[in-house]
């Protein structure tokens, strides 16, 4: 496939003239504490000269070259952006856990940048009920393809959701979100519509990306509403760039003058997608090495009507009229779930330090948007057991049955059905059992855990210091009770069988891996606030306790991409090859040490 010449997957071409700040992490760990801006109407009116419609409950903001910044935890809603002024406008989303809802862009856009630009830190950003259906023109623009609708910067780390959005007639992409391939972000298109967008409408890449209940097609080569738009033939409804396996379900696409309903792969890199259900007309182009799996449920007769609930005018979006029915359905579904899972656990973090928690129930449990919390894929739920971490945000879970065990390590508090509880009242203080069984030869070992560990019995040969135990075994076994997760198992000499809660484990899966020569240490002990980081290597990478670092199970390694948070501690990793990309949000120090084992 030829290299596409639209905006590259970096920040060079989007909002270059917009004022920027560099004030550090800006409350980096306000991950999901949604907070509505008090006095937003007054502030917007003073800044932009807005007017409020008496008939509809929304503000009108005339475009005048301004940049509207959305910070962490803020909500921007019920606005009609008047583009008939002919001036540029940029909605710059700089903070996660923010909500952009009920926004209508009215008139042909004649600016020289994307309308919405996203450069948010870790967390979630929701775009809901947005109308950008009046299109844009390339006339007077400096971009190769002219202006676009939505652009996600490479530095953005947030998980984006676009729900009930209408994007039509933009020369330079509808949703330009293929930077999810860089991690650790993702994009979810839910009930969105796109038509006659140049380059592509839905552009994505990550294995966590989903296109669901969406429609896109082109029936022209003049992307830009015929007012000096960019005339070409490569308007793709869907373009999956390099990365993970994008999921597509209940969606419908059709080709136009450019004869592809969907394209996978870009710039010599393979793209992958699984098309589970829906329909398409045309063909699917697969670049070298790319794969698109099309299920039998996918038809060749797509339904190209606008999905229910998607706004069809700027006024409908700004007033929220188009979302009323959908909101009622969501509320009804939420009420049904609440009835099935009547109890709720709320873990309320504290900004002073990170709090790790785990609990178990004897019934069903699922994450919930309760009291300002939102669902996070990093919270682990397995067979009624839940573990996670909070700082200055909240995690919430609905469940049925009884709360059987609860362990909390840190300053956070736990509420059950709205009442603060003492973790000591639930289950054993040290709920897990670790056993080291000898094989008939003298064996020494050292084991570390996240929480506390103690010997189940008495033995003078066993040494316990904080979260680490050192002992030996020959014919019998040593049993320990502990909290948290096992972080390191080292068999110093001999051989032994190690099991956790009755399941045998491989010591090689824990702690240092001798085969990897290099180390990277992210040290947050001297920083004022926790720091988020993400990096990618071109070789293997594993967690490590090198340089007295801790191992945190909430830090994630996916393939060769790592993302985590270093608070008042250090994280370390062994790796091979080179670090290809590194992003740090915060003021932790980063030390890359090559060939450490030879020194």
Topology:
Blueprint: H1 40-48, E1 51-52, E2 59-62, E3 66-70, E4 75-82, E5 89-93, E6 98-106, E7 116-118, E8 123-132, E9 150-152, E10 158-168, E11 175-176, E12 186-190, E13 193-195, E14 200-204, E15 210-212, E16 215-217, E17 222-223, E18 230-231, E19 236-240, E20 245-249, E21 251-254, E22 260-264, E23 272-275, E24 278-281, E25 283-286, E26 291-294, E27 298-299, H2 314-319, H3 324-340, E28 343-348, E29 355-361, E30 365-367, E31 380-382, E32 385-390, E33 394-399, E34 403-409, E35 413-416, E36 419-420, E37 432-438, E38 443-449, E39 453-455, E40 463-465, E41 468-473, E42 477-482, E43 486-493, E44 496-500, E45 503-505, E46 518-523, E47 531-537, E48 541-544, E49 556-558, E50 561-566, E51 570-575, E52 579-585, E53 589-593
Parallel strand pairs: 2-4, 3-5, 4-6, 5-7, 6-8, 7-9, 8-10, 9-11, 10-12, 10-13, 11-14, 12-15, 13-16, 14-19, 15-20, 16-21, 19-22, 20-23, 21-24, 22-25, 23-26, 24-27
Antiparallel strand pairs: 1-2, 17-18, 28-33, 28-35, 29-32, 29-34, 30-33, 31-32, 35-36, 37-42, 37-44, 38-41, 38-43, 39-42, 40-41, 44-45, 46-51, 46-53, 47-50, 47-52, 48-51, 49-50
Biased composition (Low complexity): 313-336
Protein name: Right handed beta helix domain-containing protein
InterPro entries: Pectin_lyase_fold/virulence (IPR011050)
